[in-house]
Amino acid sequence: MNLPRILSLAAALAAVAAAAAVCVVAGSFALYAVARAYIGPAGGAAVVAAAFAVVAVAVAWIATRKAAPKAGAGIPPPPASPIDKVVAMAKEHPLVAVGAAAVAVTVMVRNPAMVTALVSAFLAGNSSPKPPK
């Protein structure tokens, strides 16, 4: 994204946030005015606080509920690829991943022939003809 588009998006988000704040203030004042007429100033404030507490609980419930997995048609998930396994291991053990990366960099720096062999194998693997299906 370019800078003018990012700034336009930021301005739009600020405008929406300001409009939402105005609506919240106006709605709370209207609720307070109605409740104050029936149960007094303290009761009106309590009604406004209770209304916003209910809204907060609803938003928290929506944000923290777990998504129910959709039942598959009996098809097992595909096996994890080696890359997925490495990423999962790195997420579970970040210090081990940093150590392994440091060892790999050290080996590559001390043995540039290994880097050349890996790059040529990768490029040769991409250019080789695909087997017929």
Strand content: under 5%
Order of helices and strands: HHHH
Task: Provide a count of the helices.
Answer: 4
Largest sheet: none
Categorize the overall geometry. elongated
Distance between the termini: 41 Å
Give Rg in angstroms. Answer: 29 Å
Structural class: mainly alpha
> How many beta-strand elements?
0
What this model shows, in words?
- This protein is an all-alpha fold and 133 residues long.
- It folds into 2 domains: 9-65; 82-127, no CATH class.
- It has 4 helices and no strands.
- It has helices at residues 3-64, 82-92, 94-110, 112-127.
- α2 (82-92) crosses α3 and α3 (94-110) packs across α4.
- The radius of gyration is 29 Å and the shape is elongated.
- The mean pLDDT is 81.
List the helices and strands and how they pair.
Layout: H1 3-64, H2 82-92, H3 94-110, H4 112-127
How would you briefly describe this protein structure?
By secondary structure, the protein is mostly helical.
Question: Which features characterize this protein?
Answer:
single chain, 133 residues, mainly alpha, 2 domains, 4 helices, 80% helix, 0% strand
